[in-house]
Design goal:
- By secondary structure, the chain is of the alpha+beta class.
- Among the domains are: 118 residues, Uridine Diphospho-n-acetylenolpyruvylglucosamine Reductase, domain 3; 107 residues, Alpha-Beta Plaits (2-Layer Sandwich); 84 residues, Alpha-Beta Plaits (2-Layer Sandwich), CATH 3.30.70.
- It contains 16 helices and 16 strands.
- Helix 8 packs across helix 10, helix 9 crosses helix 12 and helix 13 packs antiparallel against helix 14.
- It is globular.
- The structure holds flavin-adenine dinucleotide (FAD).
């Protein structure tokens, strides 16, 4: 059957003429065609994903160049996959249909900090860690903190990234006030502005947030800022069961002060993290843990809050509640949490799912997932964001040949996503659908919603050149 009959589009292969034209648009020094350099742009951090090579990598430096590149690509039907930091966990920046990878690494400037309006205007290639450092130096903060701070502003906007501070501050979407973006036909749009209120027509800013490079290329972002908090502390709490830990969460959130983050983890992940970092963590022999992160104007305020939290968790069976003694102990604990992904990756071949369920359902959802372990003979390591229902699940390959594990993995993931749907959840809480979770998203999602999303895609990108094969086919 021809690719068109199968519903797959046939794209134009880049010729030497195209390469010359694209080099003329972007500048020769901003184009990579050498095969040995293309692999770096053909993958991200997603486990188990086969890389796909682009035919050309282009690194624009201005919005006008992005516009001219897209005009050319659209007229020739060349696919364009945008790349930020390449830290994605769903294959979003992998060029499934080859073509051009548009890397925004050279558009990485912090253009302005507007103190009067509490906003920053930034280019998409700026890394989140660099943004954080620049803002903290002037007493401000952009509180979206991912486990990987080499991720870029553009990538985090395009995936609507979450992170550990979402309980108090929300996710990326809640901080994007305006965008400059380039549509598939090369037209440049400006959405939103330096204000938090806007009831002026459809909200294109929020449509582009989380669109994974499939609707437009984001070339500038206006972000909402906060005052840098004076103090930040963590409280680490061991429980005899995950149910006890999760049962404490609603009451913690009712205390009148919102924690910045509220993380849960099972013991297995702490052991894996310990052997990865070589650093001992407090407590042994407990089934589950909560990590409560809090910010306040003074240490006294935090101490008072943690006393209230301790009273709640003790009622739910917590064995203890520990504030890491000193900066070093706190750093060690947070580094261990941030290192979970790399620790598991080193421990065994694994997959990552970032399902989201209502936070009250986390314990029952995880208990049901655990019932799948004997069915498939595959252990699942679990941790996540207890305050917002985002559960990270890693089916790992242990005591089973890799091929057999791979053969069973898809069915197990399907079962997990079905459970997630039954508990009122969604396929991805923060990593996006990309190509990795496309099959599950397309089979478990609302069919009319899916049709509407495809209509939006067709309206904005009629020739389907922007990141084709992502979110849906
Ligand atoms: C160790 C580790 C920890 C992580 N922790 C978290 C976490 O706590 N929370 C979380 O949400 N994620 C987390 N992630 C996932 C990842 O960091 C995020 O998805 C991040 O937002 C990706 O940013 P990036 O710049 O690397 O984007 P990329 O991976 O380069 O791209 C991601 C997607 O965005 C699109 N895109 C990139 N730039 C643009 C642009 N300018 N315009 C349009 N589309 C664009 C790409 O086409 C792709 O679809 C983690 C990943 C790792 C490896």
């Amino acid at each position: 059957m021809s690719p068109e009959k199968k519903g797959l589009r046939r794209y134009h292969k880049i010729t030497s003429e195209d390469s010359a034209a694209l080099s003329a648009i972007a500048g020769r020094g901003n184009v990579i065609a050498a095969p040995e350099k293309l692999l770096d742009y053909g993958r991200d951090e997603t486990p188990l994903l086969e890389p796909r090579l682009p035919e050309l990598v282009v690194k624009p430096q201005t919005v006008q160049t992005v516009s001219a590149l897209l005009k050319y690509a659209d007229s020739k039907r060349i696919p364009v996959t945008t790349r930020g930091g390449g830290t994605g966990l769903s294959g979003g920046c992998v060029p499934l249909h080859n073509g051009i990878v548009l890397s925004l690494e050279k558009m990485d400037r912090l253009l302005e900090i507007d103190h009067n309006n509490f906003v920053a205007v930034v280019q998409p290639g700026l890394q989140l860690g660099k943004l954080r450092d620049s803002l903290e130096a002037v007493g401000l903060s952009y509180p979206v903190a991912l486990g990987e701070m080499t991720a870029t502003v553009g990538g985090s906007v395009a995936t609507n990234a979450g992170g550990m501070n979402a309980v108090k501050y929300g996710v990326t979407r809640h901080h994007v006030l305006g965008l400059e973006a380039v549509l598939a036909n090369g037209e440049i749009i400006h959405t939103g502005g330096r204000f938090v209120k806007c009831s002026s027509g459809y909200d294109l800013t929020q449509l582009l947030v989380g669109s994974e490079g499939t609707l437009a290329i984001i070339t500038e972002v206006t972000l909402k800022l906060h005052i840098k908090p004076a103090c930040r502390e963590a409280l680490f709490i061991p429980f005899h069961s995950l149910q006890q830990a999760i049962d404490s969460v609603p009451e913690i959130l009712m205390l009148g002060k919102v924690p910045v983050g509220l993380e849960f983890m099972e013991e297995s992940i702490l052991q894996i993290a310990e052997s990865y970092t070589g650093k001992k963590l407090p407590y042994r022999g407990y089934a589950a843990f909560l990590l409560v992160l809090a910010e306040a104007d003074s240490q006294d305020e935090i101490a008072g809050y943690f006393c209230d939290v301790e009273a709640v968790v003790r009622k739910h069976g917590a064995a203890d509640a520990l504030v890491p003694p000193g900066r070093l102990a706190m750093k060690k604990l947070l580094e261990a949490r941030e290192g979970f992904y790399h620790a598991i990756k080193k421990f065994a071949p694994m997959q990552i799912l970032d399902a989201v369920v209502p936070r009250s359902e986390i314990a029952r959802f995880v208990a049901d997932v655990k019932k799948l372990e004997p069915k498939y003979g595959i252990p699942v390591v679990v941790y996540g964001h207890a305050g917002d229902g985002n559960v990270h699940l890693h089916p790992i390959c242990r005591d089973m040949p890799y091929d057999a594990w791979m053969r069973k993995l898809d069915s197990m993931m399907k079962d997990i996503y079905e459970l997630c749907g039954r508990y009122g959840g969604a396929v991805s809480g923060e990593h996006g659908i990309g190509m990795d979770k496309k099959a599950f998203f397309n089979t478990t999602g609302d069919k009319v919603v899916l049709k509407t999303l495809k209509n939006i895609k067709a309206a904005l990108d009629p020739h389907c050149i922007l990141n084709p094969g992502k979110i849906f086919d």
